[in-house]
Hints:
The chain is an alpha/beta fold. Helix content is 38%, strand content 27%.
Amino acid sequence: KDPYMLEFLGLDDNVNYLEKELEDALISHLQKFLLELGRGFCFVARQKKITFDNEHCFIDLVFYNAILKCYVVIDLKTDKLSHEALGQIDLYRNYYDQEVKRPDDNPTIGLLLVTEHDRLVAKYSSVYKDQNIFVSKYMTCMPTEEELKRVINEEKRLIEEYKIANK
């Protein structure tokens, strides 16, 4: 899904908020967030601590999808996509694949929720091309009609560029 509509969180679109505030709001509205994610999601953990050589990392949210039979690790960012964030979600996903998932589980999926895609970062990142890492934009407020038109026109332009480049 792209974008995820998180307007039910009640966060103001024009205010800079911390990742912790976004996470707190998602946990407070967990049932609605599960519905936004889709079918089969089960909540596993929040701020799941993992340790490498005495250095601790915390995975924002962990879910298990009973339909896909896999873990889904989610990292929340309150800014645009970065190569650091892609590396971080790849680390989390690999950790779950090697240390947590059972032999009958499918590979772990990493989902990075950001406020804005950076198409160049995505284009040049081998991590982003991994079929089990997804980057999606989230929005805390429904866009205006003008904003929707702008997004649609931008997507049309990108599709045309893709068609021309792949002839």
